[in-house]
Amino acid sequence: MVAGQSSPGGSQDAHPVVQLLTPEGERVHDDEHSPLVAHLGADDLRARYRDMALVRRFDVEATALQRQGELALWASCSGQEAAQVGAGRALRPQDHVFPTYREHGLAWSRGLDPVTLLQLYRGTTHGGWDPATANFHLYTLVIGAQTLHATGYAMGVQKDGAVGTGDAARDTAVLACFGDGASAQGEVNEAFVWAGVFNAPVVFFCQNNQWAISEGNERQMRAPLYQRAAGFGFPGVRVDGNDVLAVEAVVTAAAERARAGEGPTLVEAFTYRMAAHTTSDDTTRYRSAAEEEVWRARDPLARLEAHLRASGGADEAFFTDLRAEGDALAERVRREVRGMTDPEPTSMFDHVYAEPHPLVEEERAWLTDWVAAGGEEGR
Amino acid sequence: MTTLTLAKAITAGLRSAMDEDAKVLVMGEDVGRLGGVFRVTDGLQKDFGEDRVIDTPLSEAGIVGTAIGMAMRGYRPVCEIQFDGFIYPAYSEIVTQLAKMGNRLAGAGTLPVVLRVPYGGGIGAVEHHSESPEAYFAHTAGLRVVTPSTPQDAYWMIRQAIASPDPVMVFEPKRRYWDKGEVDTDAPAPPLHAARVVRPGEHLTLVAYGPSVKVALDAAEAAAAEGTSVEVVDLRTLSPVDFDTVQASVERTGRLVVVHEAATFLGLGAELAARITERCFYALEAPVLRVGGFHVPYPAARIEEHYLPDVERVLDAVDRSMAF
């Protein structure tokens, strides 16, 4: 154990982890990482708390919308708000994020309207936004595939000369998100190889939320994930993923390293998926209530709230107002999701190719005629 | 006009594209210092540098996956998959990511990635070096699939593929790499997705593509000696397929035989048979026949000649069609 480092639990409790805020809300000093967030005042801490609280309120609303039949599916990020908001706060506008499908907190941090995320989960589109607007790529559902896209994008950043210039508005890092389950995928390990070999400006950001649907870490890895980076030739660090300050500090350092042209870093944010994998999952079949209770005590919001209250960084009115803001957000999300219209049937033929493809056009014309002639009315 | 092998015609096409657009990159296993195992990228790294001609890790999913990321950053990567049978580690990145990304982006971006795949048998190779996996990819919406049969087409197809905003797979007939032909780098290119009548005829239409075009032309020559006038169509493009050109030919001849090295079961020939039967049922004098590989793993080299469609098997199909 190193000063300022403790063990947040799980199956790999014995390993060192960067922590700057304990579950009880007490600040911990760490010579390496504390200076990276030392400039944050009470207003900054409140801003991070606000991010996490609104993301959680949004998440609760999305879960309800799925239960009400408004969404086909929902993948909750509950419990991972600190990991995502902390990472998001460490990025600059020109940095680019390649998310999984559970990165709602990162999307929020990048400035994406959360309603936008729900189009995919409602089933009105497979995408939903222009990655360039917030430098936030589309969600990727094929586990780990996006880590290679991130690495290739980062190689492009290198070719553009957008690393190591010292220009804070130009040097660019790429955040490649994935989970503990994805760490078993070949493509993730290939991404490690490529990023290492080409010294690409990638931050591999693994949210180890302990569960890949029903399978725990012991089914995905024999050795702690952060240690794997050494074999690929770059540093790996485990951070308390429920500590927004520690994640922000660790990702800030990793992103700065990438932007400076010093290559990739693997950040393992040790956290917990407090909800089920998705709304189609049933956690009671594979994990205990006692385990969930252990992690509930490490809740990322609760610890920052405790710190803000104890330090006088926020008064009761702040929390009251924030609850009202969250409810207003939820109300808007609900209204806008219910107002989403289904796409035109023939829109499925749009953008299959950038330039016309005769077969697609032939079939588009057929479906157009079929619908116009009432061919679907016999259903 | 210059005489080049099919391989060197591709080299020339790559060189022209790289000269024209600094965003064009070449990447793959051994494509740099070695110039590729077939030397198709020979000399490119020397002239364009390691930054644009990239020797990659031995990682096919990595090649395609990172190419996707580079394309998102504004580059136009041209990836070499060293051999047909080694494309499968990249299959998920091609089918679940590359093919669908433009659709998911819905106009917010394109994926101008080219995958070059040496394919087909007849070179006496060991396992996994002689396969014809084109139908897997032609079956996938979002990909364009083409295959040249001549140096002239090879030069222009690679250039057109690189210029396309869509992902394009170029299946290169490896046993024709060393065949020479005239290449006119000033001639206006025929459309990328057009089939072409390469030998006119009256009695029967023979459709082939890639390495099989030469087999079809040889068979047509032999059939002519026996009094049967065979029209040969080089399909050239497998997605989209130029059914109009095939239809026009079959409406004249009334008969169709399709030749390819890939297994006939669910191959391009099956799709051609279905579509052409739908389009010209009343013009057909005989069922559409197919000559192709068997439903077996590509056989060992010492018996591959019994697997590959040859002139005799094509002529047998021609005879069977004419007998109807």
- The CATH level-2 architecture of the largest domain in chain A is identified as 3-Layer(aba) Sandwich
Sum up the overall morphology of chain A in one term: globular
Major sheet details of chain B: 7 strands, mixed
Largest sheet features of chain A: 5 strands, parallel
CATH topology of the largest domain in chain A: the name is Rossmann fold
What is the CATH superfamily classification of the largest domain in chain B? Thiamin diphosphate (ThDP)-binding fold, Pyr/PP domains
User: What radius of gyration of chain B results from the CA coordinates?
Assistant: 19 Å
N-to-C SSE string of chain B, H for helix and E for strand = EHEHEHEHEHEHEEEEHEEHEHEH
**CATH topology call of the largest domain in chain B:** Rossmann fold
Put simply, the count of helices of chain B is: 10
How much of the polypeptide of chain A forms β-strand, as a percent range?
A: 5-15%
- Class derived from helix and strand content of chain A: alpha/beta
- Which residues of chain A form runs of ≥5 with pLDDT under 50? 1-10
The percentage helix of chain A is 40-55%
The helicity of chain B comes to: 25-40%
Mean pLDDT of chain A: 95
Précis, in short:
Chain A is 45% helix and 8% strand. Chain A has 14 helices and 7 strands.
Word description of this protein:
The complex is a heterodimer of chains A (379) and B (324). The N and C termini of chain A lie far apart (66 Å). Chain A has helices at residues 34-37, 42-67, 81-90, 104-109, 114-122, 131-134, 145-159, 186-198, 225-232, 244-259, 289-296, 300-311, 316-338, 358-372; strands at residues 96-98, 174-179, 202-208, 211-212, 215-216, 236-240, 265-270. By secondary structure, chain A is α/β, with parallel strands linked by helices. Chain B folds into 2 domains: 2-183, Thiamin diphosphate (ThDP)-binding fold, Pyr/PP domains (Rossmann fold), CATH 3.40.50; 196-323, Rossmann fold (3-Layer(aba) Sandwich). Chain B has helices at residues 6-20, 44-48, 60-72, 91-105, 134-138, 151-163, 212-225, 243-253, 268-279, 311-323; strands spanning 2-5, 24-28, 53-55, 76-80, 114-119, 144-146, 168-173, 180-183, 196-199, 204-208, 230-234, 237-239, 256-263, 289-293. In chain B, helix 6 (151-163) links the parallel strand 6 (144-146) and strand 7 (168-173).
